[in-house]
Amino acid sequence: MAAKENGKAKQSKMGGFFKGVRTEFGKIIWPSRETMVKQLIAVVVVTVITGLLIAVIDYGAQNLIDVLVKVNAA
Predict the structure, then answer these.
(1) Which of 30, 35, 68, 73: CA 20 to 30 A from 24?
(2) Contact 39/31 with Cβ under 8 angstroms?
(3) Contacts of 39 (CB under 8 A, 6+ apart)
């Protein structure tokens, strides 16, 4: 008998949880399409710049390592 009551209490808690989630989703203010496009462009630009910066640093570090290895090998 206690197990049945415990199961109903769990269902009630889960139902309340999902009802709360649904209520909170209703409060979300979704951005407009224009805002999303601007943010997408900003993310892509920052990603490309960061990638280029990492590539330049990697290239410079590799050249420095090559020079150091040649000096030590000679």
Answers:
(1) 35
(2) yes
(3) 31
Residue 12 tokens read as 């009630």
pLDDT by residue (tens digit) across 18-72?
Answer: 999 999 999 999 899 999 999 999 999 999 999 999 999 999 999 999 998 887 7
- Residues 49, 54, 60, 63: is their CA dihedral positive or negative? negative
Query: Which phi and psi angles does 28 have, rounded to 5°?
Result: -70, 135
| Residue tagged 């197990």 (tokens) | 3
